[in-house]
Amino acid sequence: MSSRNYLTVPGQDSQDADSDEQASAQDYLLDNDSLSQEREQEQEAEAQDTEDEYPLTTKQLSELHDPKSMRSYISLFQNDKLNIFKYLNTSLQTGIKTPTRNNSNIKWNYSNTKRYKLYSDNRIPERIPKTFLQLVWEAFNDKTMLLLTGAAIVSFTLGLYEALGQPPEYDPEGNKIKKVDWIEGVAIMIAVVVVVLVGAVNDYQKELQFAKLNKKKENRKVIVVRNAQEEMVSIHDLLVGDIIKLQTGDVIPADSVLVRGECEIDESSVTGESDTIKKVRLSSALRKFASINETNKKNNNNNNNNGSLHELDIGSVTPEGVHLPDCMLISGSKILSGLGTAVVTAVGVNSIHGRTMMSLKVETEETPLQERLSQLADSISVYGCVAAIILFLVLFVRFLFYVFAPNGRFHDLDPAQKGNKFMNIFITAVTIIVVAVPEGLPLAVTLALAFATTRMTKDGNLVRNLRACETMGSATAVCSDKTGTLTENRMSIVKGFIGEDQFDETMNNRENLPHSKDMFNEKCTEDLQKDLLSNIVLNSTAFENNKYVHPDIERESGISLDSINESNNQQTSSPSKWNILSWFRSGHCKKANNDKDDDDDDDLMKHAMEGRQEPYIGSKTETALLAMAKRSLNLKFGSLQDLRDDPEERFGVDEIIQVIPFESSRKWGGIVVKYKASGLIRFFIKGAAEIVSNCCHSKRNSDDCLILIDEKVSDVINKNIKSLASNALRAISLGHRDFKDCSEWPPKEVQDDENSNRANPEKLLSLKVNNKNSDDGLILDGIVGIQDPLREGVKNSVQQCQKAGVIVRMVTGDNVLTARAIARNCNILSEEAYNDPDSAMEGPKFRKLTKDERIKLLPKLRVLARSSPEDKRVLVETLKGMGEVVAVTGDGTNDAPALKLADVGFSMGISGTEVAREASDIILMTDDFGAIVDAIKWGRCVSISIKKFIQFQLIVNITAVILTFVSAVASEDETSVLTAVQLLWVNLIMDTLAALALATDKPDPNIMDRKPKGRSSPLIYPSTWKMILSQSFLQLIITFTLHFHGKEIFFKGKESITGHEQQQLNAMTFNTFVWLQFFTLFVSRKLDEGDGIKNWRKRISKANLNFFQDLLRNYYFLVIMALIGGCQVLIMFFGGAPFSIAHQTKEMWATAILCGTLSIPIGLIVRICPDELAKKFFPTKLFSKCKYIFGLEFLRERTKSSDEEALLDRDGSPNSSGSSAFF
Question: Which stretches are annotated as coiled coil (predicted)?
Answer without folding.
Answer: none
